[in-house]
Amino acid sequence: MVASVLSVAPSGIIPEPFLRAESVAGKFFLMFFAVAFFAAVFGGVLFLASLFKGRKGEQAQGALFAAPAVLLLSIGLVYPAVLTIIQSVRGKSGEGGFSLSNYSAMFTQPELLLVLRNTALWVILVPFLATAIGLLYAILIDRARGEAFAKALIFLPMAISMVGAGIIWKFVYQYKQTERPQIGLLNQILKSLGFETQQFLLEAPLNTLMLIVVMVWIQAGFAMTILSAAIKAIPDDIIEAARLDGVSGLKMFRHITLPSIRAALVVVLTTIAIGTLKVFDIVRTMTAGQFDTSVVANEFYSQSFRYNAPGLGAALAVLLFILVIPIVVYNIIQMRKEA
Amino acid sequence: MSTVQTGALPESFEPADLEPPSKQQKLKKSTGEAAGALQSRWASLVAVLIAVLWTTPTLGLLVTSFRSQRDINRSGWWTALTDPGGFTLENYRQALEPGSSASLSQYFINTIVITVPAVLLPLFLASLAAYAFAWMPFPGRNALFVAVFALQIVPLQIALIPLLDIYVNKLGFGASYWSVWLSHTIFALPLATFLIHNFMRELPAELMEAARVDGAGHVTIFFKILLPLLTPALAAFGIFQFLWVWNDLLVSLVFLGGTPDVAPITVRVAELSGSRGSAWYLLSAGAFISMIVPVAVFLALQRFFVRGLLAGGLKG
């Protein structure tokens, strides 16, 4: 049904002057035009809805209110997803007969196995490191002076793009031969300590770990914010009671704090894991997936657009989807237990 | 993709905890933890260490962006801290200069033009749909809502390539803003509808019933009663979506490629990082030009910002 809707749509549905603009004024005109256009559609739906009266009309109104979102999602998300799944089982080109070759390639070709290994490293290391650091920091600055400022410092990386973060860290890792003056901070530190300088982004598997650091740097602030809120939500009387019993320090953390924030910990770990699974920008900006640093989301892009293997790219996208499911299921099971 | 999780979070957690602790909390510490003084000295040290580790990389690139091209390649940025004087705006001037091949100004404008409709449109559509799902009975409503809810787990990668085909071959968009406007809207709808729906469900039903008794239709109720009440939810999601779109690389890269007329600044900066990886005068200034707006938003709207992020978790 969706397909037939699309096939009747004329090609060039939007006339050229509203499609593109080169001048700055033209671009802003397009922007205002688009907002006005969408507002008009929005108003049209509401006007149509107001025409329906009575009990039956009531139901028609409801359907009409939901229709634009539901329609866009079916045409723009569900239908393309189905096409991708079909493409993934039709060989490397995505146009041949039925075959599982794309999936078997993922688990046999050495380059693709490496991609899976890298992705596993990311998904294991990033959530745990980011959460551990975020938790440590949240506990350390809890109720300290300047807490708001201290939090903002760690949280700021979440506001900037992963492209920006990639460049910031690429500069930290910048390589110059040991004898020459260094411009990268990390190599300067190595040099000051008397070591040889390193090509951090070229040498596998070190380079993957160096990219993982960037994601940990971004996500620790997210972990810190949520866990800090969870720690503040622990009832004071529980802490007081434990303190009267002589519990303090690590024991307090182990037996009181940790169990109380379990739910928030699961949220943080799974949310970061899902975000990490789809990491693309960092790898793309820093190494473009070269030197054995590719991950599934990056390989999806490369196979689809650079190596002309859309079938394999589709299979990698489906793999991403499949990998997200167990994390979500684990999350739901944990939530049920808590409830 | 935060849906499943939102419910599990403690109540108090909703607003950003970036405000200073209250007096009461401070008092509690002084009475309760006198013994921990030594411990807290170590704690402060570790906290400061983490804070320094987290800010130094950004500081380094920021300092670099104000140094001359020659200095950047001849000495580390840290030497400029002890020996200042050579700071210049030349890198920014070159990065923004219109007409030059390295110019970022038109990409910056593209980012703005992409972002505004891509934030407003999902807010429009999602609040409309959320109202229907929350307060208007129609056949198949619950099944549809569950379906929209479930779509949150679908990674956008799975839709990109067929969608590109639809835009180019069926709709004739080519590399135009319309592709990214629509795509960002589509990918935002499941989360936006879900969040706004949750917010609407919490409003008292009497409010709507009273208005209906007075003869108000759904359209009137939606505009006159709901929209004003919805402002906090719309602001939180709006900021989350703003950051998502402004910082996006993948969606724009797929639908726009590097076309200078339409591509956003993230695409251009990522491209420069590949093609001119050692032109640090350009990369440092470019990175900060692309980051200035989201960082300003962060500093100005911290509370909304954090609430939006918490609500949104990690979409994509």
TrEMBL record, chain A:
It is found in: Cell membrane. PROSITE patterns: ABC_TM1. The keyword Membrane applies. Its main location: membrane. One of its GO terms (cellular component) is plasma membrane. Keywords: Cell membrane, Membrane, Transmembrane, Transmembrane helix, Transport. One of its GO terms (biological process) is transmembrane transport. It is a multi-pass membrane protein. The chain crosses the membrane at residues 28-52, 64-86, 120-140, 152-172, 209-231, 261-280, 312-333. The keyword Transmembrane applies. Residues 116-333 form the ABC transmembrane type-1 domain. Belongs to the binding-protein-dependent transport system permease family. This is ABC transporter permease. It comes from Knoellia aerolata DSM 18566. The lineage of its organism: Bacteria, Bacillati, Actinomycetota, Actinomycetes, Micrococcales.
From TrEMBL, chain B:
The keyword Cell wall biogenesis/degradation does not apply. The keyword rRNA-binding does not apply. It is found in: Cell membrane. GO terms for biological process: transmembrane transport. Keywords: Cell membrane, Membrane, Transmembrane, Transmembrane helix, Transport. GO terms for cellular component: plasma membrane. The chain crosses the membrane at residues 42-63, 107-131, 143-164, 176-200, 221-246, 279-301. It is a multi-pass membrane protein. Belongs to the binding-protein-dependent transport system permease family. This is Sugar ABC transporter permease. It comes from Knoellia aerolata DSM 18566. The lineage of its organism: Bacteria, Bacillati, Actinomycetota, Actinomycetes, Micrococcales.
